[in-house]
From TrEMBL:
GO terms for cellular component: plasma membrane. Mediates influx of magnesium ions. Alternates between open and closed states. Activated by low cytoplasmic Mg(2+) levels. Inactive when cytoplasmic Mg(2+) levels are high. Keywords: Cell membrane, Ion transport, Magnesium, Membrane, Transmembrane, Transmembrane helix, Transport. Gene3D superfamilies: CorA soluble domain-like, Magnesium transport protein CorA, transmembrane region. Its main location: membrane. GO terms for molecular function: cobalt ion binding; cobalt ion transmembrane transporter activity; magnesium ion binding; magnesium ion transmembrane transporter activity. This is Magnesium transport protein CorA. The keyword Glycoprotein does not apply. It comes from Aureliella helgolandensis. The gene is corA_1.
Amino acid sequence: MNSFRGFKKALRRRTKQNHALVGAVPGSLVQHEFAHDSRARAIEFSRLKHEDRQLESAAELQQHLAAKQHLVRMRPRRTAGSDDATEASNLEAGRLSTSPPRPVTWLNIDGLADVELLKEIGAQFGLHPLALEDVVNVGQLAKSEAYDNNLFIILRMPHVTDQFETEQVSLFLLDGLVITFQEFNGDCLNPVRERLVKSMGRIRSRGADYLAYAIIDAVIDGYFPVLEHFDRLLGGISDEIDEDLPHDIPKRLHHIRADLLSVRKVAQQHRHALNTLLRERSSLIEEDTLLFLRDCLDHITRLIEDADTYRETCGELRELYFAQLGQKTNDVMKVLTIIATIFIPMSFIAGVYGMNFDSDVSPLNMPELHWSLGYPFAVLLMACTGGGLVYYLKRKQWL
């Protein structure tokens, strides 16, 4: 972030996205050149147990998918038209039942190179082909869509190295099952996994909808360290302006301001996606979980406000930089003007006595040239003129 060349490189990287082939059949899945190898991980948990498995082979994953598909189909699911009395009766029966709570499964896929694996997952759980196409063609806007048996949510997970970038996280919420697809290995979801391992809070006693909320919340909260990073950068630039005036500060501020604008745009996309999710009120999301999703909206609002504040800070630092630069230029010009003001009368005196009129032609032609003290007189006259100007400038507090 310290050079304009780095900014242009980051801009090219940010605009290079996988997209559907021109003229391709809608819903077709195509492996892209930059896709990473696919790795699957399954976490199954309930209030009483937690199991974390790394699925090493496609066959092992397919076996696991078949078992999960059977469980999902066997589970009774609330529908939008279900009777409230029936739901209340089922809820009361669930409270009185001594059977252990049904487990929730989180299936996470890192890397999108294996499109056959994605097709298999889609076929097992009835995921819409258009949604799977959005999974493969990363670079989609954050959004949420409702399908017959699932909710499809796209999130933009932040990464900060030498520039701001986002990774697409695609989330499917089914009854008792959450499926996430990520572009790369490594994410900001480790706090969620840690809560599952240590049974922190209510996450192990809630359903798949609460797990989906926890993932969304972790992605949104991941933007606050990004803003803290920009805050440190702006603080360092402010110190540099006070101490010195590096020439690359305007370029760095332009880069930071562009990144902050990207943060704001992504935050607005997430706000729109959550508003759509809350407005549709899917039967897959419990009422209590909707309250937590509204809290995510508050985080997004704060995120947008903070991004706007830092963008304004960029503008203020830019104005301060040019004001300091202008003041520094004015100081240099002031010194040069004072020097010129002092030496202009001396130059005039030297010019007068350098005209070399012939005194033999007329006694009025510079008789001082023939004085024995003519040179000391000229030097003394210059010194007195310069000293008088210095005294005058100090009296006026210009020096």
